[in-house]
Amino acid sequence: MKAIGKVSSLLVIINLLFACSNDKAEVKTNDENSESKTQVQEEKDKDTNGKIEQNDTVDNDVVKTNRVLTEDEVLKAIKTQLKTDLSKILPSKLPLSKGKHLTATTKSSANYYEVVFMESDKPISINNKALKNKHKATVIARLNVKKYANLTKSSEQIAFEDYSKLGGQKVDLGYGITGYQDAGAGSVFTSWNEGRWALNTRSLTTKGEQGVKLAKEATKFLETNTLPIPKPNGLVHLDVERSGNRITWQKEKIVYTIDQVKDPLDALRIATSFEN
């Protein structure tokens, strides 16, 4: 009986040792699996970070997102790219062609920022190197905002004129507004004033009637759309030849300029989408 008891005790001890050995092996295996999973996850994280960095820095024209950003979302994203002490004021609407996507390049400093608005066939991230390729993106408009040292300097950028005092051939632009036509250096200018704004159109001397037509179209458009309230003045220059459209206005020492817009009425649409 004593022998049987010793054998039984010995079997119990062996079983206990075997169980402990299995536990240790299981713990070690789990630790190894956990470590292996961690390494795999780290590799995935590296890959993901690499892709994000690539979209920001490499000539990769497609933005890898789950959905396409709306125009409003792109405008908000543009503001985050501007590192400036100035208030970040942008137009709320851009004249995008049907099926195109809005993007931009930006520059900024403490007292200055520039946004070149562009459209592309495929979504392209803001400030992506692909935007340097004219075949991938087309400029819609450029906005410059600059703070000058004083009001005198900022006013010099506007060159406001009261055209009624300069004379010229009178032209009825409708809505009770009188324009004044003057010619020189191969161009015909049709000029008028609306409130604190000075406005003019330019056409070639051989196309003088087109300048008057554009002036009338602009006057009609501004009957139902409002330009920003300048402090003190603003200037609109619209070009029949679509090469020099420019809208500039002051907010005291800060000057806003819209240019590089091909369609003169599109320039007005952009300017009138700013909040007053």
Structure, described:
- This protein has helices at residues 2-57, 71-81, 151-156, 208-222, 264-271; strands spanning 101-109, 112-120, 138-147, 169-174, 177-184, 187-194, 197-204, 234-239, 246-251, 254-259.
- By secondary structure, the protein is α+β, with helices and mostly antiparallel strands.
- It has two domains: 37-146, no CATH class; 154-261, no CATH class.
- β8 (234-239) and β9 (246-251) form a beta hairpin.
- It is globular and about 55 Å long.
- The N and C termini lie far apart (106 Å).
- 26% of the residues are buried.
Structural class: alpha+beta
The number of E-state strands comes to 10
Instruction: Give the C-alpha Rg.
Output: 34 Å
Task: Give a short account of the largest sheet.
Answer: 10 strands, mixed
Overall mean confidence score, pLDDT = 82
* First-to-last CA distance: 106 Å
SSE order, one letter for each helix or strand: HHEEEHEEEEHEEEH
Unreliably modeled segments: 1-64
Given the C-alpha coordinates, what overall shape results? globular
Overall structural domain count: 2
